[in-house]
Design a protein that fits this description.
Helix content is 44%, strand content 14%. The chain has 15 helices and 15 strands. The strands form 5 sheets. It has a 4-stranded parallel beta sheet, with helices on both faces. Helix 2 packs across helix 3.
């Protein structure tokens, strides 16, 4: 039975959906004004794994992840670049979407934009005003925090101890410093509303979008731990005051990615973008690095950890490739009732303990290799098939291991002195490996075996092996 740690109760609870076999799941999406970084990867890979695992268990999952495309940061970026807010948000949403695809995260069932849901936000704000939980002040609308007696129940902060947080704006218009904005006056970039032209507050966006696409009550609301207060706390307040019922049954939060023990963030300028990381590491390596740690714990980013993840994943994928080839396609089948699958489920049912789940994959690696060594194609095929099933459940691509172009070029440059006899033919702008293969193919065609062998020997030092076929030469990483 799946158990998840609920931030609301601060306990690990048995997961029981609100409605039969259907699960409604909402994850706070990005504010699209810059390149996504490894911290975003940690968040969205984590909840991608939950989404996949719920489907693996047989649930009908409705997954919604919003896009915040109206925000002060977007407007500031537009001014800085002499562009429009729409152009900025469209550009960076495309970059975000490509990064998520490159990380092999599944696309949510719903991905609404804030600018397309302003009507629902206005309706929700009007409802809160009519119930006395919100008030208009010179074109702004604020939520009366102290009218919601349970405020602070998620972050475990008594209301009397709370002060205006970093993302709660202070204003002389407010009745109380803790009151937060539901609607902000903005006559230049705003939308029409009963209170004049303005923009929605950050918190009301998620309440309106989750209600529109998933209903007034949902099973799971997830996001980074930095969203607990004030964002998720404020979502609870406005949603439960408007609807009169519990908003979310299970609140889930992932830990931070840190560098030198500090949270990775744009404000500290200590972030590594997903695009830059993918130049040096495969998406499966990044996912393995993230899943090695429990999702609620912080993850320390460093080269050593990523290289260790690379080696660990390579061992799994290499076994899958080699054993699958040995067993043959007809013998590849997963055994969903095997002890390995049961062990995998036991780990994942324990609050998504992916580090233990990965150890099950390594157990299958050992058994698959053993079956191969014993020339047992039937058992090898079963282990390979089961390994692939569990890898896919964790979101790995199961594509053959291949080093990145950047790493490949770096390796070639380390032995470039050995290739000084080719210096006149090689330009730094070339795709180096293809150029070297081309030069070697020409040497072989001219029966210049000495040159062809020199190239092969030099590349061997870089850990690259050439395999000559009838029509072409391919390269592969040396084991």
């Amino acid at each position: 039975m799946l158990k998840l740690h609920n931030t609301l109760s601060d306990n690990t609870e048995e997961f029981i959906p609100l409605k039969d076999n259907t699960v409604t799941m909402y994850v706070c999406g990005p504010t699209v004004y810059d390149y996504p970084h490894l911290g975003h990867a940690r968040c969205y890979i984590t909840w991608d794994v939950l989404y996949r695992y719920l489907k693996f268990l047989g649930y009908d999952v409705k997954y919604c992840r919003n896009i915040t495309d109206v925000d002060d940061k977007i407007l500031a970026k537009a001014v800085k670049e002499g562009s429009s807010a729409e152009e900025i948000s469209n550009r960076y949403y495309k970059i975000f979407a490509e990064a998520m695809q490159n990380l092999n995260t599944l696309k949510p069932d719903f991905e609404p934009r804030a600018t397309k849901t302003t009507g629902e936000m206005i309706a929700l704000i009007k409802q809160l005003i009519s119930k006395g939980f919100a008030y208009e002040a010179e074109g702004d609308v604020y939520f009366r925090v102290k009218n919601f007696k349970e405020y602070g129940k998620l972050s475990k902060q008594p209301i009397d101890d709370l002060e205006a947080g970093a993302r709660v704006e202070t204003s002389s218009k407010k009745e109380d410093a803790l009151d937060f904005a539901l609607w902000k006056k903005d006559e230049i970039n705003g939308f029409n509303s009963p209170w004049g032209k303005g923009r929605p507050g950050w918190h009301i966006e998620c309440s309106a979008m989750s209600k529109k696409y998933l209903g007034e009550q949902i099973d799971i609301h997830a996001g980074g731990a930095d969203l607990i207060f004030p964002h998720h706390e404020n979502e609870i307040a406005q949603s439960e005051c408007a609807g009169g019922k519990q908003f979310v049954k299970y609140w889930l939060h992932n830990g931070f990615v840190t560098i030198n023990k500090e949270k990775m963030s744009k404000s500290l300028n200590n972030f590594v973008t997903i695009n830059k990381l993918l130049e040096h590491y495969q998406s499966d390596t990044i996912r393995f690095f993230i899943l090695t740690n429990h999702y609620r714990m912080p993850v320390e980013f460093n080269e050593e950890a990523l290289n260790s993840a690379k080696a660990g994943f390579k061992r799994i994928q290499t076994t899958l490739d080699e054993v699958s080839e040995f067993a043959g396609a007809d013998n590849i089948s997963s055994d969903e009732k095997s002890i390995e699958v049961e062990n995998f489920k036991t780990a994942m049912d324990n609050d998504l303990n992916t580090s233990v789940a990965l150890s099950v994959l390594f157990d299958l690696v050992s058994k698959a290799n053993s079956a191969k060594n014993q020339n047992d194609k039937i058992s090898a095929g079963k282990y390979a098939g089961t390994l692939k099933l569990l890898m896919q459940t964790l979101g790995f691509t199961c594509k053959k291991v291949k080093i990145s172009e950047a790493e490949l070029n770096e390796r070639i440059r380390t032995i470039i002195n050995d290739l000084d006899f080719l210096s006149k033919d090689i330009n730094n702008n070339d795709n180096l490996i293809n150029k070297i293969i081309e030069i070697r193919a020409k040497a072989r065609a001219e029966k210049n075996w000495d040159l062809a062998d020199k190239i092969r020997t030099s590349m061997d030092k870089a850990g690259i092996v050439f395999k000559d076929g009838k029509d072409k030469t391919i390269w592969m990483e040396k084991e």
